[in-house]
């Protein structure tokens, strides 16, 4: 900096002189590595972003890597984030020379603390949104008892424990009452967000234990924050009356939010259209976030922590938009800010200070007091409310979980100087251990097979009597329809039109009175007689499945699942299908709404089918067409596909096929998977007409298909059916010669079936893909030995049952069903050729109906391999490149899908072959 002297002469000859500091022009500091900026981790106060980005990357990556292992132990993500923060601090990584100095220098911590505090304010706002007082009111007596006992007992034990900790570790300049309140609050508080995620992981959200724990956690959470506000007020006040003033101001601001800002935001939501079903608008969300920041500032200025301001705004926000607002901000908060807060807490935690037997004795004492107070207090209260011993033990184990909220209390106490680093480290370790122990203890007390779930299924109202299974065993009158994704509505509409029986009118003559009019009773009776009457009533039971993820918004939706009618009313997919059913005269007997994890989809569907006594479960599946792929992505090669292979992500993921196979394995009734290629029917197809093509190879699944198509053809005049009865011949027949143009010997056919398949990517045998449909070398570890081949005795019984089923079907078949019997050496290929010829000749929408055939049907493995080989050469495998998909479809279904013939494919598994095998069928 240089000094410049400026001199001026006035009008009266006076000289004025002053010195001006002139800033010298310096070259801007270069931060580019290319210009030799040096160490990028060096802290630069003029540009701290570079180091902050490095810190964020290390924190997030480390916590995510830890969660990969802890997730296998069914631990919540918060545990890996706490552990990552501890390991990055002086306990572990900080002992590496130069690590803390370069990555987490002391000068950079204020920036991290600022971001962490901002994220914590938003996270506490989300926690406030999670609080559902309706859940607490609906379970008032048990939740009140459990929450009160879960607070009072550990709070009292914490007060007693604080005496010894104060005498052992705390400077006597600190007031004992302040220290006691902090320790008692930390011992008694339950981490409500952690609790909700543990319940989600253990599938307890809809269990009696989970509902009571969640309701008790609501009250415990609110009381805990009140105690935290009291603790902060005590630490901030120099005199006793100041504490009263701080608390009164906090209560006054809360009342202002409730009576002034709550009506304002209710009006704003109506004005902006946030209540119209489309979710909160950007203006509404912006106003909410501004109020959160203002409330945080007010609470900080009053003397309460700023994070309490965000929590209060979450409590008072009106309109039922909690889940929608959470969806807007939760990813940024949970993915970036919360791991950052745990890291800043971990940097203050030094487990190396626990270096003596006395300190470790106090650590164990802290864990025992915190756990026993929560466990026995909550368990005894639950037992007194009528819960069993196992259920009470699960309630106590869950309520003992700690997490973020306790760390918030401890951090505030550490910043205020009420506790020191040693006590802080002891309680951080206690929170880590108790949170880790919650899941295994809950599973030990309350394993899945002992649980009693709370089903929220509306009462089923049957408008017409259903036929008895004993009287009509081949009639399927109750169908469970699974609604999961919008893209699956197309196949659902098609199947519903196929199954629904059009109403028929029965003429009725009515006598009139002398004046030509009818009495009121006679008019009503006349109208009732003229209403459409169903000859064979078909009823649908819909199940809306919503995947429960680890997102906070998903957990909030799951906690409100008990209001089934309200959820169905708000759900556009359920509303759209209900409207379609109403317009097409389809009877819906019951509607259910369930928010569960993907792994529980099959159990939920099975439970629904059993509760409604369904005859058939339908799962739709729309396949993505090649045109839906990006043009650029289809032409630019991906180098990772050459290294690891091209994933088959068409349609649904592998988790969806796993759901289907679990459903196959345990379903008590027939299961149908209705696939839609996503391609429109031919332009010359007559609207409302469908042609069903059933290649009958034999077995229980094909017999179920035969009964189904017969029922559909009898109930709907717009449906025509071709049943192609295929018999395997020992030598090529005239049918084969006509198809091949030459004689193919049996030896040549068998030799061709054993040809190794080349991989899609090249000729290297090391990377070759060997397709398997049944048995043989599996493509994935789950596939070994899944097909059960029939013995000779089983084969004779199956052939007899097939012949009987065909005779009965021919006897009662309507004229719209055509039976063709063909003997061929290659049944799959023959069925494909016949289907192609029928589709070209027909003016109706063509639909395959095939049996899955993986238990008592004849094997077509050799021929199926040939079809796969040819499709691989022509690059037409599509979704069938996945072994999981091929197992779901079976051999006939896979061949039909590869052929490209028809718009739809229905794969059926009979109740006779389901529900007998273990998982992974």
From TrEMBL:
InterPro entries according to UniProt: Cation/H_exchanger_TM, CPA2_transporter, Na+/solute_symporter_sf
Residue intervals passing through the bilayer: 49-66, 78-99, 111-131, 143-167, 179-199, 211-236, 242-261, 281-298, 304-325, 332-353, 359-382, 422-446
GO MF terms held by the record: antiporter activity
Membrane topology: Multi-pass membrane protein
Boundaries of every Cation/H+ exchanger transmembrane domain copy: 59-436
Polar residues composition bias: residue spans: 746-757
GO cellular component, one term: membrane
First-listed, main subcellular location of the protein, grouped into a coarse class: membrane
GO terms under biological process: proton transmembrane transport
Region (Disordered): 730-760, 775-796
Residue ranges, compositional bias (Acidic residues): 732-741
Subcellular location: Membrane
Keyword annotations: Ion transport, Membrane, Transmembrane, Transmembrane helix, Transport
Protein name in the entry: Sodium/hydrogen exchanger family-domain-containing protein
């Amino acid at each position: 900096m240089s000094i410049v002297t400026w001199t001026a002469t006035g009008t009266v000859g006076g000289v004025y002189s002053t010195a001006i500091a002139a800033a010298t022009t310096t070259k801007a500091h270069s931060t580019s590595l290319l210009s030799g900026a040096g160490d990028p981790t060096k802290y630069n106060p003029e540009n701290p972003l570079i180091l902050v980005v490095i810190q964020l990357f290390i924190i997030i990556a480390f916590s995510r890597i830890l969660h990969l292992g802890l997730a296998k132990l069914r631990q919540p993500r918060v545990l890996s984030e706490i552990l990552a923060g501890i390991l990055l601090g002086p306990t572990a990584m900080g002992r590496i020379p130069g690590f803390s100095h370069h990555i987490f220098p002391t000068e950079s911590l204020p920036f991290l603390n600022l971001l962490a505090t901002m994220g914590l304010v938003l996270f506490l706002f989300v926690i406030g949104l999670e609080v559902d007082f309706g859940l607490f009111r609906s379970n008032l007596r048990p939740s009140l008892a459990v929450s009160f006992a879960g607070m009072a007992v550990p709070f009292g034990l914490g007060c007693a424990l604080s005496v010894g900790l104060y005498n052992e570790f705390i400077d006597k300049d600190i007031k004992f009452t302040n220290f006691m309140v902090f320790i008692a609050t930390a011992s008694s508080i339950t981490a409500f967000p952690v609790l909700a995620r543990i319940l989600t992981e253990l599938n307890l959200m809809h269990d009696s234990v989970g509902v009571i724990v969640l309701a008790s956690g609501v009250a415990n959470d609110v009381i805990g924050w009140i105690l935290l506000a009291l603790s902060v007020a005590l630490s901030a006040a120099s005199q006793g009356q100041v504490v009263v003033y701080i608390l009164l101001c906090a209560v006054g601001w809360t009342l202002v939010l409730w009576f002034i800002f709550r009506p304002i935001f209710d009006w704003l939501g109506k004005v902006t259209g946030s209540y119209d079903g489309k979710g909160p608008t950007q203006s509404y969300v912006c106003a909410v976030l501004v109020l959160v920041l203002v409330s945080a500032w007010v609470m900080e200025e009053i003397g309460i922590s700023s994070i309490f301001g965000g929590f209060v705004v979450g409590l008072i926000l009106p309109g039922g938009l909690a889940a929608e607002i959470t969806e807007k901000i939760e990813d940024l908060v949970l993915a970036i800010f919360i791991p950052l807060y745990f890291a800043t807490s971990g940097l203050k935690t030094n487990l190396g200070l626990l270096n003596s037997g006395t300190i470790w004795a106090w650590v164990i004492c802290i864990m025992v007091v915190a756990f026993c107070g929560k466990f026995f207090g909550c368990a005894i209260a639950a037992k007194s409310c009528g819960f069993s011993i196992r259920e009470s033990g699960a309630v106590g184990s869950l309520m003992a979980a700690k997490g973020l909220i306790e760390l918030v209390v401890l951090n505030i106490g550490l910043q205020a100087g009420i506790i020191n680093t040693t006590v802080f480290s002891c309680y951080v370790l206690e929170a880590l251990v108790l949170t880790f122990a919650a899941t295994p203890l809950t599973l030990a007390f309350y394993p899945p097979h002992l649980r009693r779930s709370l089903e929220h299924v509306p009462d089923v109202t049957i408008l017409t009597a259903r036929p008895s299974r004993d009287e009509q065993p081949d009639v399927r009158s109750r169908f469970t329809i699974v609604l999961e994704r919008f893209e699956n509505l197309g196949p659902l509409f098609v199947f519903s039109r196929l199954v629904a029986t059009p109403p028929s009118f029965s003429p009725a003559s009515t006598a009139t009175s002398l004046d030509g009019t009818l009495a009121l009773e006679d008019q009503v009776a006349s109208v009732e007689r003229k209403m459409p009457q169903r000859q064979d009533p078909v009823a649908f039971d819909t199940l809306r499945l919503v995947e429960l993820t680890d997102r906070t918004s998903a957990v909030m939706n799951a906690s409100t699942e008990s209001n089934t009618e309200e959820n169905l009313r708000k759900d556009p997919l359920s509303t759209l299908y209900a409207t379609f059913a109403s317009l097409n005269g389809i009877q819906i007997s019951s509607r259910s709404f369930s928010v569960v994890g993907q792994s529980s989809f099959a159990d939920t569907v099975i439970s629904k089918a059993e509760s409604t006594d369904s005859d058939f479960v339908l799962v739709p599946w729309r396949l993505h067409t090649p045109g839906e792929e990006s043009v650029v992505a289809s032409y630019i090669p991906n180098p990772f596909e050459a290294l690891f292979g091209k994933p088959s992500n068409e349609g649904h993921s592998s988790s969806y096929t796993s759901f289907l196979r679990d459903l196959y394995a345990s379903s008590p009734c027939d299961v149908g998977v209705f696939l839609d290629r996503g391609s429109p029917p031919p332009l010359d197809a007559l609207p409302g007409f469908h042609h069903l093509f059933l290649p009958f190879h034999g077995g229980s699944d094909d017999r179920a298909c035969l009964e189904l198509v017969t029922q559909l053809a009898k109930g709907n005049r717009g449906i025509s059916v071709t049943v192609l009865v295929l018999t395997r011949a020992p030598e090529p027949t005239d049918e084969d010669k006509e198809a091949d143009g030459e004689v193919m010997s049996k030896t040549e056919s068998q030799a061709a079936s054993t040809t190794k398949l080349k991989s899609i990517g090249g000729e290297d045998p090391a990377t070759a893909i060997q397709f398997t449909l049944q048995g043989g070398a599996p493509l994935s570890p789950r596939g070994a030995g899944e097909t059960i081949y029939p013995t000779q005795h089983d084969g004779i019984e199956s052939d007899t049952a097939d012949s009987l089923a065909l005779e009965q079907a021919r006897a009662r078949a309507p004229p719209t069903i055509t039976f063709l019997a063909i003997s061929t050496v290659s049944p799959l290929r023959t069925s494909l050729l016949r289907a192609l010829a029928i589709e070209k000749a027909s003016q109706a929408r063509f639909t395959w109906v095939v049996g899955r055939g993986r238990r008592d049907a004849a094997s077509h493995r050799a021929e199926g391999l040939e079809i796969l080989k040819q499709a691989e050469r022509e690059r037409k495998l599509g979704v069938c490149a996945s072994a999981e998909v091929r197992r779901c479809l079976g051999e006939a279904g896979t061949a039909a899908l590869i052929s490209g013939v028809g718009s739809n494919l229905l794969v059926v598994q009979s109740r006779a072959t389901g529900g007998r095998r273990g998982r992974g069928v």
